[in-house]
Input
Amino acid sequence: MRQVLADCSASISELKKNPTALLNEADGSAIAILNHNKPAAYLVPAETYENLMEMLDDYELGKLVEARRSDLSEAVEVNLDEL
Output
């Protein structure tokens, strides 16, 4: 059996009837959309999705910074007064 990774769940039939009501009821949380009691999809409010994408972008940038920090042999010395 697959794990449901959401606090709220709804059937595909419920989603078809009133998707806005589901989003309002979930109050910003993800909703697992179930098909035969198994997760078929997750419905995520736009604001929550945007926040997730921003966090993912920050994480990827952090990994890039750490990778560049570990290789100081390619670092370029800069004088701020010359900029």
About this structure: Residues 8-71 form a domain with the YefM-like fold fold (CATH 3.40.1620.10). Strands lie at 8-11, 31-35, 38-43.
